[in-house]
Amino acid sequence: MRILVLGAGGTGGYFGGRLAASGADVSFLLRPVRAGRIRHDGLQIRSPLGDVLCRPQVLVATELAAVAARQPFDLILLSCKAYDLDSAMDAIAPAVGPATRILPILNGLRHYPLLDARFGAERVQGGLCFINATLNAQGEIVHLDPVARLSFGERDERPAGAGLQALSGMCTTAGIEHRLSPRIELDAWAKYAFLCSVAASTCLLRGSIGRILATEGGAAFLGGIYAECTAVAAAEGEVLPEPVRAAALAILLREGSSQTSSMYRDLVAGKDVEALQIVGDMVHRAVRAGLSVMRLDAAWIHLQSYMAQRQAG
Ligand SMILES: NC(=O)C1=CN([C@@H]2O[C@H](COP(=O)(O)OP(=O)(O)OC[C@H]3O[C@@H](n4cnc5c(N)ncnc54)[C@H](OP(=O)(O)O)[C@@H]3O)[C@@H](O)[C@H]2O)C=CC1
Ligand SMILES: CC(C)(CO)C(=O)C(=O)O
Known about the structure:
The chain is α/β, with parallel strands linked by helices. The chain folds into 2 domains: about 1-180, 3-Layer(aba) Sandwich (Rossmann fold), CATH 3.40.50; about 185-310, N-(1-d-carboxylethyl)-l-norvaline Dehydrogenase, domain 2 (Orthogonal Bundle), CATH 1.10.1040. The chain is built from 13 helices and 10 strands. The strands form 2 sheets. A 5-stranded parallel sheet has the order 5-2-1-6-7, with helices on both faces. Strands 3, 4, 8, 9 and 10 form a 5-stranded mixed sheet that branches. A hairpin with a 5-residue loop joins strand 3 (about 45) and strand 4 (about 50-55). The mean pLDDT is about 95. The structure holds NADPH dihydro-nicotinamide-adenine-dinucleotide phosphate and ketopantoate. The site of NADPH dihydro-nicotinamide-adenine-dinucleotide phosphate has 31 residues, from helix 1, helix 2, helix 4 and strand 8. NADPH dihydro-nicotinamide-adenine-dinucleotide phosphate binds next to helix 1, helix 2, helix 4 and strand 8.
């Protein structure tokens, strides 16, 4: 199976790099600066699960159509930030042939209708990842703890097609923990409710879960914001099962936890954040459902203020 990975940041670089290092047929579609760096230095992963240095095939947008015409891609792993989705869709379009499937691993849910409208829902599969990874000043992928898990599946509970089964085999060969999910849409909501709680809380309250829990009112805030997110999920028809909620709350209420979120790391670094696509989208869904979500509202206002300050320079 031939895989194209759009993006070589924390997630695409980690999972695509591990697949490439294990011998899988993986190419990266990158913008010129990142492409130049990886062509020169290789793709380096620093990880508690073992470092990897590989030299995958690297393409830039202008090279893609010719390469895809010679050898079509079976799967495109989409690992951009949600605010780059439009440009990423333009970039991958020349590689989307009749049999190509697209597997996004972005956070949130807002990208699905956009990908469906552009490429057709039958091509877009369900995906998500659990990892804490970032880039260092040298452009290396720094994996921050031992968690690194992919989940993927067909949407609408269709049985997994040959492409996802092949990907599962490739992940096994590469030593990537993964799950071929029979209910990826439920899993996507479970992750969105959890991630949105972590991202909104750590950004609004400016600290790790452990630091928030050490404050008076911190535990009630974290439990409350998760309840807001699960209420939105239920209003949209995804009632998260009790074991799923218990597992999320166990992480959200773990004293001393250093857990933050990729959004928090970006915010502390002064970078752009997926505020609209993660927290804003949850708030907008709550408004449509007539739900009151005061904690999410506060986080969304805070993030909008952050972005306005950032734009003002
Ligand atoms: N990092 C983490 O720990 C986790 C992140 N996530 C989610 O995964 C998604 C990706 O995050 P992450 O990997 O951290 O993001 P990064 O910013 O680290 O990487 C994104 C990559 O996409 C590339 N890209 C964006 N647009 C284009 C384009 N048009 N053409 C080519 N390349 C493009 C960027 O290129 P360039 O370098 O040129 O900007 C960059 O290499 C997000 O939705 C995030 O919320 C989920 C779980 C954990
Ligand atoms: C769930 C979590 C916090 C880690 O995978 C995440 O998705 C993120 O940091 O963006």
